[in-house]
């Protein structure tokens, strides 16, 4: 065999041995690499990462080259919104866009810096893009989550001037590229000028010049640093931070934001500490309604805009500022649930029963009266009528949605609902029902398992009721009974029930004083709560929007009627009990005996707050819920004031009670727009339920049944027969019965909302007036 053949043989042997080694099991101590480890080596992972980064860079370069700076014209994208009644007829068309462009040289330098301090302290040194915030925003968008991350002034300007507020990956990538190009091609002053001239400041004001006029009545060139800091702070949430109409929370937040802006200016060396310390929050001018929104139109449009903005925030992850910018003057066609005929009837009822009787030239207090009302279909949750004030131009803040006045005794049904839903018991173990007997003594100390809790509320007119059923206590609005019931149920449970029914209880302490309705609430909230009672416990969140469309795009609004938050039996029992308030209680004269009633079944509750600063009637028929509130407001300071003496037509001191003008407005409106119908109730309790037949046995009742049966017969008999058969006979009973239960000779000193000793008791007086002073 030659050498060449030997080499070939050896090579064949090596190859065969190699194949055998690969096919044989690994030697002990040297396990073979798994398929996963062979596929994902560090070299391959590093190569993949490098390749992805390279592709991303090349893609971004391609995108940068492909996307040009578009023609910018923010004003061209402003289009009037159209608002329609539920039947499609025109309600309002929003007016001309309030915008005036000013040169940056017309804006004081330190005012310019307030915007930089508020939004983007690195504005003068950055590249125009916050890459970290943009990446976070892109990730949130891809994952379908909330609001986008932070962005620079340049990015916000690009969004306002070149793009829109859409939360899409495509729009965010365009924003990134255009911002880089704009920052490279334009000066920082040009960008800042564009930003402050295109931003939305609320009050229909676009740009700093319109905002300076809207909030301070001056030109942009005359703005102080304090005023500039307010406008800069305002951009975060324009409507929420508008001081003239802000809630306490809104005022707190905008004040914090204002301080943040000025503190940042000190930190950047743009403001001295001494000057900063001397600065005070600026005085804000009263707002005025936009053209074309006179009367009730502005209130309707305002609520529609708010609810659309809230839906865009929830559905598309917009911030408050972005949502407002996406709705106001953006070409929407919004059809409301407002029924044209019911709206006209509500306005007519307020005028005939109240405002026609007010004359502020004769009585100063007449200028303090602010009426508000919301009417809801409980089956659908549609807001069919709304009254926000006498005129949107004269009173910009809607009385239908304001939450700064106490609902007083209209809160008592919530306490009863909590007791019924939780099958609560009194502290001696008796179930709380419509027939449960409580001690209705005046100023009776509330106890928690025998221990006083430091709360002893007076009853209206210091009336003592001794033993009284829950039904009678609701009829007469006995404070001492519901204060004790609240503690029996547990105030945490009461406030939890209030929240589930639709009341905003955030920040409200769960204390016994809340049983008297000492929190703030709006007619809109109370209408929703009572609509949930009327809808047998199904949660009703009143909505004013029927549909919202924009250039072929529509927004899906949430269903106003949700799931069960209260059992049907509990809800229906509350309704049954509330019929007694109308037929044999504080609303008897104004509602039960109203000649327009014609046998219509009604449930409702009156409310009169401490010092007569608010008065309510929230009531319902089977097909319509309406909450009417009257509020005493100083027209200059907007402080809460007493309504006593308004109209000059009431006896004595002229106290306005929930059973007076609010109930009269309710009746004049409701009985004119509803058809006679009856409640379909699944309950064995309350005034709407016929009393049981008398026992056939001649044996006397046992002592345990006497207290619960005897008192419950009086309230249950009258409502079940009188309203449906002989409504005209009701008034004759009122004067003779009520005074005997509400003595006029009791002391009245120290209680500013009570009548003088020379004044006869008001048969419609709400026994639930709030007198607790924390």
TrEMBL record:
Residues 441-451 have a biased composition (Basic and acidic residues). Residues 373-623 form the Penicillin-binding protein transpeptidase domain. It comes from the Bacteria. It catalyses: [GlcNAc-(1->4)-Mur2Ac(oyl-L-Ala-gamma-D-Glu-L-Lys-D-Ala-D-Ala)](n)-di-trans,octa-cis-undecaprenyl diphosphate + beta-D-GlcNAc-(1->4)-Mur2Ac(oyl-L-Ala-gamma-D-Glu-L-Lys-D-Ala-D-Ala)-di-trans,octa-cis-undecaprenyl diphosphate = [GlcNAc-(1->4)-Mur2Ac(oyl-L-Ala-gamma-D-Glu-L-Lys-D-Ala-D-Ala)](n+1)-di-trans,octa-cis-undecaprenyl diphosphate + di-trans,octa-cis-undecaprenyl diphosphate + H(+); Preferential cleavage: (Ac)2-L-Lys-D-Ala-|-D-Ala. Also transpeptidation of peptidyl-alanyl moieties that are N-acyl substituents of D-alanine. Residues 705-755 have a biased composition (Low complexity). Residues 756-767 have a biased composition (Acidic residues). Keywords: Carboxypeptidase, Glycosyltransferase, Hydrolase, Membrane, Multifunctional enzyme, Protease, Transferase, Transmembrane, Transmembrane helix. The keyword Ion transport does not apply. The keyword Protease applies. Signal peptide: none annotated. InterPro entries: Beta-lactam/transpept-like, Glyco_trans_51, Glycosyltr_51/Transpeptidase, Lysozyme-like_dom_sf, PBP_transglycosylase, PCN-bd_Tpept. Residues 88-265 form the Glycosyl transferase family domain. SUPFAM superfamilies: beta-lactamase/transpeptidase-like, Lysozyme-like. The chain crosses the membrane at residues 45-67. This is Transglycosylase domain-containing protein. It comes from Streptomyces eurythermus.
């Amino acid at each position: 065999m030659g050498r060449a053949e030997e080499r070939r043989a050896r090579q064949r042997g090596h190859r065969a041995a190699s194949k055998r080694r690969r096919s044989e099991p690994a030697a002990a101590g040297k396990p073979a690499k798994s398929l996963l480890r062979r596929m994902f080596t560090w070299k391959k992972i590093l190569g993949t990462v490098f390749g992805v980064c390279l592709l991303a860079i090349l893609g971004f370069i391609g995108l940068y080259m492909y996307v040009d700076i578009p023609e910018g014209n923010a004003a061209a994208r402003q289009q009037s919104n159209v608002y329609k009644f539920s039947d499609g007829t025109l309600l309002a068309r929003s007016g001309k866009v309030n915008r005036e462009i000013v040169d940056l040289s017309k804006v004081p330098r330190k005012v310019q810096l307030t915007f930089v301090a508020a939004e983007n302290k690195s504005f003068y040194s950055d590249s125009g893009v916050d890459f970290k915030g943009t990446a976070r925003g892109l990730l949130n968008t891809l994952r379908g989550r909330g609001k986008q991350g932070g962005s620079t002034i340049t990015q916000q300007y690009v969004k306002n001037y070149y793009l829109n507020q859409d939360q899409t990956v495509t729009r965010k990538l365009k924003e990134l590229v255009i911002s880089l190009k704009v920052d490279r091609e334009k000066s920082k002053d040009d960008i800042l000028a564009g930003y402050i001239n295109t931003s939305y400041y609320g009050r229909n004001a676009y740009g700093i010049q319109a905002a300076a006029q809207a909030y301070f009545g001056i030109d942009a060139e005359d703005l102080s640093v304090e005023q500039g800091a307010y406008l800069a702070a305002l951009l975060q949430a324009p409507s929420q931070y508008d001081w003239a109409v802000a809630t306490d929370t809104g005022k707190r937040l905008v004040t914090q934001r204002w301080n943040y802006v000025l503190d940042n200016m000190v930190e950047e060396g743009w403001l001295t500490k001494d000057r900063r310390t001397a600065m005070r929050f600026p005085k804000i001018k009263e707002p005025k309604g936009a053209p074309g929104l006179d009367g009730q139109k502005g209130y309707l449009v305002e609520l529609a805009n708010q609810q659309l903005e809230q839906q865009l925030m929830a559905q598309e992850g917009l911030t408050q500022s972005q949502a407002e910018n996406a709705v106001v003057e953006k070409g929407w066609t919004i059809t409301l649930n407002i029924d044209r005929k019911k709206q006209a009837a509500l306005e007519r009822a307020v005028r005939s029963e109240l405002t026609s009787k007010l004359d502020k030239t004769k009585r100063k207090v007449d200028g303090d009266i602010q009426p508000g009302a919301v009417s809801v279909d409980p089956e659908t949750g549609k807001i069919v009528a709304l009254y926000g004030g006498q005129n949107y131009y004269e009173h910009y803040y809607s009385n239908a949605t304001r939450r700064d006045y106490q609902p007083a005794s209209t809160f008592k049904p919530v306490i009863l609902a909590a007791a019924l839903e939780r099958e609560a018991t009194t502290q001696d173990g008796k179930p709380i029902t419509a027939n449960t007997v409580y001690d209705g003594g005046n100023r009776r100390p509330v106890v928690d398992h025998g221990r006083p809790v430091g709360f002893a509320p007076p009853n209206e007119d210091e009336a003592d009721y001794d033993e009284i059923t829950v039904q009678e206590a609701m009829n007469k609005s006995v404070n001492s009974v519901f204060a004790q019931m609240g503690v029996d149920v547990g105030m945490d449970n009461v406030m939890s029930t209030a929240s589930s029914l639709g009341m905003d209880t955030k920040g409200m302490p769960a204390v016994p004083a809340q049983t008297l309705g000492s929190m703030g609430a709006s007619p809109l909230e109370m209408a929703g709560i009572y609509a949930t009672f009327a809808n047998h416990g199904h949660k009703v969140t009143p909505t004013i929007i029927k549909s919202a469309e924009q250039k072929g795009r529509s927004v899906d609004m949430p269903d106003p009627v949700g799931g069960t938050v209260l059992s049907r039996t509990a809800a229906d029992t509350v309704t049954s009990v509330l019929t007694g308030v109308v037929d044999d209680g504080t609303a008897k004269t104004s509602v039960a005996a109203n000649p327009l009633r014609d046998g219509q079944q009604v449930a409702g509750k009156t409310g009169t707050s401490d010092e007569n600063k608010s008065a309510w009637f929230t009531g319902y028929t089977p097909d319509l819920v309406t909450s009417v509130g009257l509020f005493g407001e100083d027209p200059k300071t907007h402080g809460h004031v007493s309504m006593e003496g308004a109209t000059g037509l009431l006896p004595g001191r002229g106290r306005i009670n929930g059973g007076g003008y609010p109930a009269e407005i309710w009746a004049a409106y409701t009985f004119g727009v509803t058809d006679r119908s009856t409640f379909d109730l699944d309950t064995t309790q309350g005034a709407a339920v016929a009393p049981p037949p008398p026992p056939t046995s001649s044996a006397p009742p046992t002592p345990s049944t006497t207290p619960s049966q005897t008192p419950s017969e009086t309230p249950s008999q009258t409502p079940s027969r009188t309203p449906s058969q002989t409504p005209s006979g009701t008034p004759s009973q009122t004067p003779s019965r009520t005074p005997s239960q509400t003595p006029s000779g009791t002391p009245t000193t120290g209680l500013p909302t009570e009548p003088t000793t020379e004044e006869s008791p008001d048969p419609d007086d709400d026994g639930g007036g709030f007198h607790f002073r924390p």
